[in-house]
Amino acid sequence: MATDQQIIQTSKTKTLLLVVGSIGFVALGAWFLSLDPTEIESKCCFNNSFFLYAVGIASVGFFGLCAIAAIWRLFSSKPGLIVNSKGIELFAIGPSTFIPWPDVSGFSKVEVQGQKLLVVHLHNPQKYMETGGKFRRSMAAASYKMIGSPISISSNSLAISFEGLYELCETYFQRYANGAEQPLFQ
What we know:
By secondary structure, the protein is α+β, with helices and mostly antiparallel strands. It folds into 2 domains: 11-75; 81-176, no CATH class. It contains 6 helices and 7 strands. The protein has a 4-stranded antiparallel β-sheet with strand order 1-2-3-4, with helices on one face. A 3-stranded antiparallel β-sheet has the order 5-6-7, covered by helices on one side. Helix 1 (12-34) packs antiparallel against helix 3 (49-75). It is elongated and about 65 Å long.
């Protein structure tokens, strides 16, 4: 039987915009860190230099990681996502993550700080929270606490709209989740 498969490539345009935006926030954070504490308290709207420094550190750290991931994705030959009759395969820095359909219990949409995410609900989320290196495990645990699943998919760097991603995953889930191929249209 031929595998029914959709390969979603990364969007170089969206990824380049992510790189530029991330670098901008890193620069802003670095600027915050370069300010003199007395200058902050006399000229800035923040009376607390500690707060501004904390924002600067968080901005440099978080958006620095985002920039690294986006630059990697920009030059990677790997696709962004593969959805097929066996499951979903996600590609990021490091090894890909494969989620077979029997592990998936459904999907939902969530928006976190303006970012739309497709949440992949799992029968055994702990299994996916215990795989990978320490960083990947900690990110999966944080994701689970925040949205109820260690796995979520953003279309921000994919060559597909968020609604298209949701519809694609729902269609394949309905067709293949129970282990027997179902006709797409009845």
